[in-house]
Design brief:
The protein is an alpha+beta fold and 92 residues long. Helix content is 55%, strand content 22%. A hairpin with an 8-residue loop joins strand 1 and strand 2. Helix 1 packs across helix 4. The termini are far apart.
């Protein structure tokens, strides 16, 4: 199951790169690290850890397994970009 999540998440990241409005956003997602099931959490999460160039920190853009399974790659990519932009705005 984990492998299937990683494959779909890689497609989400590719779509986010394609749809990203700026070169900075594209580069951030290109440098992201996909994760499945962060240890210590009660629910499974699938996502990507993306660098925030404004702070040198990283943002975790993630989805519950249920949401991830029921939405398309395009929808997830759009959500990922929105979450990333919120993280960037809050990091400043």
């Amino acid at each position: 199951m984990e492998y299937r999540y990683k494959i779909k998440m890689s497609h989400v990241v590719e779509e986010a790169i394609h749809e990203a409005p700026t070169l900075e956003d594209k580069t951030a997602f290109e440098n992201g690290k996909i994760f499945v099931n962060i240890g210590g959490l009660d629910m499974p999460l699938i996502g990507v850890t993306v660098p925030l160039t404004v702070t040198g920190r990283r943002a975790h853009v993630s989805f519950t397994a249920e949401y991830f399974n029921t939405n398309s790659v395009a929808t997830l990519a759009q959500n990922a970009l929105e979450d990333f932009h919120r993280a960037k705005a809050n990091a400043r």
